[in-house]
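Narrative of accomplishments. A recurring question from our advisory board has been how the design workflow behaves on a single, concrete structure rather than in aggregate. To address it, we present the structure tokens for one chain from the evaluation set, followed by the sequence designed for it. No filtering or post-editing was applied between the two.
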């Protein structure tokens, strides 16, 4: 996304890479897009998470956990649950990038 307000990347131990891009309006995620070179579970995780957080308040989006995403996906095989973590980390990195670009200081609760 060329005009993203924030972008973030996460690299998995499995070799997959996930990128998230967000457009923000009135402290909400107006648009959320992702790119991955990963497996089907990684693609599903990115797709579901991007749909889930679109329209969401930024602080609420920062609190989404990998287990929340696994539940939204109605589960993932145990050997692919790390794909949900990859998506969540990339999203959080994109939101942190937005905060940095916007000059907004926040303390992560993690």
């Amino acid at each position: 996304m060329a005009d993203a307000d924030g972008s973030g990347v996460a690299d998995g131990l499995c070799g997959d890479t996930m990128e998230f891009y967000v457009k923000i309006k009135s402290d909400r995620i107006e648009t959320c897009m992702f790119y991955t070179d990963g497996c089907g579970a990684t693609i599903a995780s990115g797709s579901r998470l991007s749909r889930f957080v679109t329209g969401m308040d930024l602080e609420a989006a920062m609190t989404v956990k990998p287990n929340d995403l696994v539940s939204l996906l109605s589960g993932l095989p145990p050997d692919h649950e790390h794909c949900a973590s990859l998506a969540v980390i990339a999203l959080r990195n994109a939101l942190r990038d937005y905060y940095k670009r916007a000059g907004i200081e926040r303390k992560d609760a993690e």
